[in-house]
Amino acid sequence: FRHDYIPSKCSILPVGITAVEGSFDSGDTVSVRDQEDHELARGMTNYNSEDLNLIKGCKTSQIEEKIGYKHYDEVIHRDNLVVL
User: Fold this and answer.
1) Helices (H), the chain
2) 8 DSSP 8-state letter
3) Which end of the chain offers a freer environment for a tag, N or C, measured as fewer CB atoms within 10 Å?
4) How many helices (H) and strands (E) does the chain have?
């Protein structure tokens, strides 16, 4: 998926996600890219691509409203993220 900027030691939240590409499941390792298609990081996602398309750009308080559940605030927790 696409994200503008990733500071080190931070989690990926839905509010920063601008686009989702491809199909993936929760627990899969995904690539995080900027608008110019540079890979910024890789990490294990807590949401599948279908749900992520619905919550991208949203605040964490809106996740349950959008998809009917919220197991995590983070799309990728910082402990499951490698910034390149």
Assistant:
1) 49-55, 63-67
2) T
3) C
4) 2, 5
Q: How far apart are CA 60 and CA 39, in angstroms?
A: 24
- ∠ CA 68-52-12, rounded to 5°: 110
83, two tokens? 């910034």
Our measurement of the distance from residue 61's CA atom to the centroid of its chain's CA atoms, rounded to an integer in Å, reads 15
- Kindly report the pTM of this predicted structure: 0.91
Rg (CA), the chain: 11
9-13, 51-55, 67-71, 76-80: lowest mean pLDDT where? 9-13
For the chain, how are helix, strand and coil distributed in percent, rounded to 5?
A: 25, 25, 50
